[in-house]
Design goal:
- One of its GO terms (molecular function) is phosphoribosylaminoimidazolecarboxamide formyltransferase activity.
- The chain has 9 helices and 13 strands.
- It has 277 residues and is an alpha/beta fold.
- Helix 5 links the parallel strand 4 and strand 5.
- Helix 7 runs parallel beside helix 8 and helix 8 packs parallel to helix 9.
- The protein is globular.
- The relative contact order is 0.11.
């Protein structure tokens, strides 16, 4: 296990632990490139790969339930959706536990595959970061949608399914490096944009990855849309996004609300930002 292996495994595990349903998270360079929740964990795994199969190759896969024989076989044999032939390769698999047979199957997949067992982290811990001459400390970002009251600020209120998509996207974007945008629908991440100094560029990356599936999907932003609101919010609305979840708090909030009303898009304010650096 290398330094980067530990960082990526920790990022994948922290993300997958956010979800109550059986969930698969695939991480590359500490950013989730595929996230999906389903009653059938194999379906969740395949959807997570499908979200970005190129990035998923060589990534870290995390599950929040036991890896049994059936799931282990699918991890070993599943072919990349890009060509239907290339067997998916991963650096690490992390899960709360493994069945005896599942562990045997994974050990036979690759000599270099690291198989990790982890337990859910406790809430309330400090987040530490070393800087020149000292350390920075802050409370961990432990808030869930249950802790946050989404405030509907648009004329159009989201349907129940749209609200669920917004909550899912909001949980995902929490684990994406700022500036972060996540697009999700039906408990599946369709596209994400990360690490761009310009939020509009993160949006465009997420839209490109989501493709035609963006229609009616939820979009979550880890911070408010500042002066780029006209380009970013309008571009999101024109693409077919159904609901947007963002912290709010910008002096241009009124303009963003007007834009969503113009296109009939639901806009939710969380009053809490993520900002992962």
């Amino acid at each position: 296990m290398s330094y980067n292996n530990y960082l990526d495994a920790d990022a994948a595990w922290n993300c997958v632990c956010e979800f109550n349903k059986p969930t698969c998270v695939i991480v590359k360079h500490t950013n989730p490139c595929g996230v999906a929740s389903r009653d059938d964990i194999i379906e969740a795994y395949r959807l997570a790969v499908k979200a970005d199969p190129v990035s998923a190759f060589g990534g870290i896969v995390a599950f929040n339930i036991e890896v049994d024989e059936a799931l282990a076989k699918d991890i070993r044999e599943f072919r990349s959706p890009t060509d239907g032939e290339t067997r998916m390769f991963y650096e690490i698999v992390v899960a709360p536990k493994y069945s005896k047979k599942g562990l045997e199957i994974l050990r036979g997949k690759s000599k270099t595959l690291r198989i990790l067992e982890a337990r859910k982290n406790d809430k309330g811990k400090l987040s530490l970061r070393q800087v020149g001459g000292g350390w920075l400390a802050q409370d961990s970002d432990d808030l869930t949608p249950k802790d946050i009251q989404f405030n509907v600020v648009s004329e159009k209120a989201p349907q129940e399914s749209e609200l669920g998509d917004a909550e899912f996207a909001w949980l995902c974007v929490k684990h994406v490096k700022s500036n972060a945008i996540v697009i999700a629908k039906n408990n599946c991440m369709l596209g994400m944009g990360s690490g761009q100094p310009n939020r509009l560029e993160s949006l465009r990356i997420a839209l490109r990855k989501a493709g035609d599936e963006v229609k009616g999907a939820a979009l979550a932003s880890d911070a408010f849309f500042p002066f780029a609101w006209k380009d970013a919010v309008e571009e999101a609305c024109e693409s077919g996004i159904g609901v947007i979840a963002e912290p709010g708090g910008s002096i241009r909030d009124g303009d963003a609300i007007d834009c969503c009303n113009k296109y009939g898009v639901s806009l939710l304010f969380t009053n809490v930002r993520h900002f992962r650096h």
